[in-house]
Design a protein that fits this description.
- A two-stranded antiparallel ribbon has the order 1-2.
- By secondary structure, it is mainly alpha-helical.
């Protein structure tokens, strides 16, 4: 399945300009818990999606291109999020619409993620604890 680039949209993945520094700190510092902006962006979008925090971007900073997403891992995950949101099915064919949606959820989720990780002396451990504790809560509520 090939996604089309929105005509005016382009293929750049954007973050809010005022939050770009948090993205850099969480990917470029010596003890950064993320190796790439793409991985951090997807985690922030996941948290935003999970907490229903969809926040439009005001000023945008391009941080990477669509081609950074893995066709085998990232794109199917993105499609699953879009479908789970109840968006029209043809949205998964429009790369620009998918990016707009993901950017807004990442914008909502990055604050939660950065406040947890940037305040921790061991951000990778804090991230692992967050993931594990939420997995336990989810399994208890579903079990």
């Amino acid at each position: 399945m090939t996604s089309q680039v929105g005509s005016a949209r382009g293929d750049r993945v954007n973050v809010c300009l005022t939050k770009h520094e948090a993205y850099k700190q969480l990917t470029e510092s010596n003890n950064a818990p993320f190796k790439t902006m793409k991985d951090l962006f997807l985690m922030a979008a996941t948290i935003g999606f999970q907490k229903r925090l969809r926040v439009p971007l005001e000023k945008k900073q391009g941080v990477f291109s669509w081609s950074q997403f893995s066709a085998q891992e990232d794109v199917p995950f993105i499609h699953a999020v879009i479908i789970t949101l109840g968006e029209p099915l043809d949205t998964v064919l429009d790369q620009g619409k998918m990016l707009d949606i993901l950017e807004e959820y990442a914008n909502g989720g990055i604050d939660d993620l950065s406040s947890l990780l940037l305040s921790s002396p061991r951000p990778s451990l804090a991230l692992a604890n967050k993931i594990l504790s939420e997995a336990v809560v989810d399994s208890e509520s579903n079990g």
